[in-house]
Design goal:
This protein has two domains: 6-13 and 21-82; 84-141, SH3 type barrels, CATH 2.30.30. Helices cover 35% and strands 26% of the residues. It contains two helices and five strands. The protein has helices at residues 24-36, 46-83, and strands spanning 90-97, 103-117, 120-125, 130-132, 136-141. It has a five-stranded antiparallel sheet with strand order 4-3-2-1-5, with helices on one face. The radius of gyration is 28 Å and the shape is rod-shaped.
């Protein structure tokens, strides 16, 4: 009987930081090892082989969908920043909050930049303050008396 390639031993596998899930390359290696090392008197049944190939096909399709979703998410993020770029040099009125997160006064400022922050799209005002686009209550043309 043929020996199993030592590169398939768990002790020889490279440790990687990740989810611990098998990728398609690992799945193919395992499938090929099974085919190479199967008992010639009791080979893998057609149903088993077809089921494993179907599983591989599903894995590949899910990985493709995941990759496509990541690209779509990146595109939407950049598109969202661009969507709010029309607010640059406009005066915005926005909801301010107290230290407990309750609505307080309204603030005003001139938008200098649009940025992607940890909490979504943010408007950077001329005074350096960053506000969420969700807090904007009014947009108007910059007035002469506004700094």
């Amino acid at each position: 009987m043929t020996k199993i390639d030592s590169s398939f031993y768990l002790s020889n596998q490279v440790k990687t930081a990740g989810s611990g899930n098998l990728g398609k390359e690992e799945f193919l290696k395992i499938l090929m090892a099974q085919l190479k090392n199967q008992d010639p008197l009791n080979p893998m049944q057609d149903k088993e082989f077809i089921a494993q190939m179907a599983t591989f096909s599903q894995l590949e399709q899910l990985m493709n969908i995941s990759q496509s979703m990541n690209h779509l998410n990146e595109f939407q993020t950049y598109q969202s920043v661009a969507e709010y770029s029309h607010l640059i040099e406009k005066e915005v009125t926005y909801q301010m909050y107290d230290s407990e997160g309750n609505p307080a006064d309204l603030g005003k400022g001139i938008v200098q930049r649009v940025a992607m922050g940890s909490e979504g799209i943010q408007l950077v005002l001329s005074n350096g303050e960053k506000i969420s686009v969700r807090d904007v209550t009014e947009v108007s043309l910059k007035t002469e008396e506004t700094p």
